[in-house]
User: Fold these one by one.
Assistant:
Number 1:
Amino acid sequence: MVVARELRFGTAGVPDSTPQTSTLAALKHVHDLGLDGLEVEFVRGVKIGSETAGQIRDRAAALGLQLSVHAPYYINLNSPEPGKRIQSQDHLLRSARMAALMGARSVVFHAGYYGLQSPEKTMAAVRKELRDVVSVIRSERLPVTLRVETMGKRSQFGSLDECLTLCQDVDDLAPCLDFSHIHARGEVRANAYLDFHRIFKKVEKRLGAAALKDIHIHVSGIEYGDKGEIRHLNLPDADFRYDEWVGVLKDLDLAGLVICESPDREVDAVMLKRLYRSYRRKG
């Protein structure tokens, strides 16, 4: 299992330019592009078998790639239907078990929707469900970390403060900081150097300095409106000030994994890594 001691850059899923549409092919392709990470997308379900998972683990280790996974989109830990909450727990546990077999350290997930509930009641419901899931992960000794993602639509549970509070309340839970979502949601200023710096320092204050040395980040350009996120864009086509954002990554000396979710994700991921390296060289 590859553990980051630096900031690594990768793509969300198989890049479109990969010769074959498979995770195994994508590993070599992202490595050849000069990237050093990949997030395996289980967003439509956990459809990889244990044999393939072992092959992915071995190939990623041989190439020095850090892996994460994204759990299915179907998760809603605040569903009014008990059956859907149980299914949501099962999606998380299946993702965690497969992540462990693949050598992936992080399982990113969307927690759910407010629905007709208040933010406070939603927080209580999500917290209860996650404590149950974490208890099973501990009992099975799975070497993975669940990461609750900051969400871009205001109808979704997952503001920056909600995610940080949840991580304080639930042991062994960490955030996935999606800066495109934070920017689109509009509840926190997130589009200038000082904004980005302030967000990371808030994470440090709430979760400790170690959180900035094992950070997990999603980024892309984004189109948004009054209700938040509309769709992802390539970084050069959006208003997100990624050059200032990269400057903060360098200045705070973060370590962890940056996953690019742009439509042309491998193009933007390579661009971000090159920009980050150029800032590092300049000091």
Number 2:
Amino acid sequence: MKILQLGKFYPIRGGVEKVMYDIMLGLSERGIQCDMLCASTEGHPQQNIKVNDFATVFVIKTSLNVAATKLAPKMISKLRKIAANYDIIHIHHPDPMATLALFMAGYKGKVILHWHSDILKQKTLLYIYMPLQTWLIKRADMIVGTTPVYVQQSEFLKDYEHKINFIPIGVLPIDADQSIVQRIKNENKGKTLIFSLGRLVEYKGFEYLIESAKYLSEDYRIIIGGKGPLQESLENLIKLNNLQEKVNLIGFLSDEEAYAYFMATDIFVLSSIIKTEAFAIVQIEAMSCSKPIITAHIPGSGVSWVNKHNTSGLICNRKNPQELAECIKLLGENKDLYNKLSLGAKNRYQENFHRNVMVDKTLQLYYMLIK
């Protein structure tokens, strides 16, 4: 069996790319040929990267930016040359360039469409892309989501329930540098540490996490990692509410630094507010470190399926800083509840979101499709 993962970018930065890459790694480590075809980002050169004996990443140079999406036209010719080598093409959505390449390649084999999220805010892009998206949905032999919730509630997929399944995202447990973990703990000694991580963009809802600090005592400290266009406005919000001692925006974190914060923190908070946040890998990374999760309920999103209320964490109403603060205090002050949810987070990760679980389910669906 030979598989091609088709989708976004290299180097690996976002969640979609990480899922593609981890599936490729997991399958190739089991001796199954699984390659990856993607466009470059951050000026990465066009090249073929031999990952191991069973996996190669074909990186095609991005040359255009149109309607807020990156285009690498040479993906079309590359896919035409190699498509016949594969039994299954596993395409990751949303990615107009990958869809166009598949449309133009003339591939006759099996196609799995991995529906990571709807296109919600980029209305111009969706208008241009809609005919291709409709073709892809019809062309796919199977459509999978990252949770059973998201694909079942997507307006775009409502007529295709007969070919819908899901593959939960899985990651390897975090292995952090203990010297960095200890430094973070020393810097926040005596504080209950709340950590959040993500791009500083509107749908992440960081303003509500910041405002929750108004209802917390000086015993709590909120650390937010990541960069983005809302950095200045969020910094101004912190100053306006005189929360400099309670909330820190610490900017971009390397993987090594982020992993250390996951290990050092007491509670992980995901404050996202709309279904653009379809899954949130960060919460399963925190769960792998036995950290209780606090999330907001987002209609139509899979976030609240990942974090099971009163099992791996707590779920509150979105856009509600006071209720978010109450959840934080509940975990900070009730040791028995904290310990229960800490153990529950670890167990839920092991049973549902370890990388082996993702690879097992992916293989199961591949064999089902080929048979």
